[in-house]
């Protein structure tokens, strides 16, 4: 990218002593990357081994080993003489990932319609209780967080571990794109309306409708990225 690099200071806590420090470092760094604003800034995001070592309270060896695994999985990339950078996907890659997510989450919704209990569905509805009286656009950050929890919860309520595993690595990028899109074209308000319709279908135990609404909702994000994804390479 043309803009100057950004050296990222991840929001992570020191690790406890453990025989598998590489695994702990991997989990901590991956979690921090997941929570980063990957697509809300122009600059590339560079990671600093020394800073990570200080933040996690371990030597640089497990940090280096964890970053190697993360690079193999496609979350970071090593650039000779420049450092380690968090990977951001291209516009085409993001759209393809959203399409895959739509297929997986729509099936999750179909399963959730018959497998989720009434209490689970009540908790799903409660996520948006705070926005009954106030517009989502007035509290975009809070709504964006609730939006992410909503989609994660549908995946969980499917009761299908494989769907959860398959969406885990997509989530890092989908989360970042959803967060950016919430600030564009009044998508927060439309998103809330669509979420409520999805919840109503789940409560009615209408698997066909829940599946269709979730698929259309997510493919709507793909169409939005196609139209407004100028921030993507």
Automatic annotation (TrEMBL):
Keyword Transcription regulation: yes
One GO molecular-function entry: DNA binding
Domain of life: Bacteria
Keyword tags: DNA-binding, Transcription, Transcription regulation
Record bears the keyword Transcription regulation: yes
Gene3D superfamilies tied to this protein: GntR ligand-binding domain-like, Winged helix-like DNA-binding domain superfamily/Winged helix DNA-binding domain
Domain HTH gntR-type: 19-89
Protein name per its UniProtKB record: Transcriptional regulator
Species: Ancylobacter defluvii
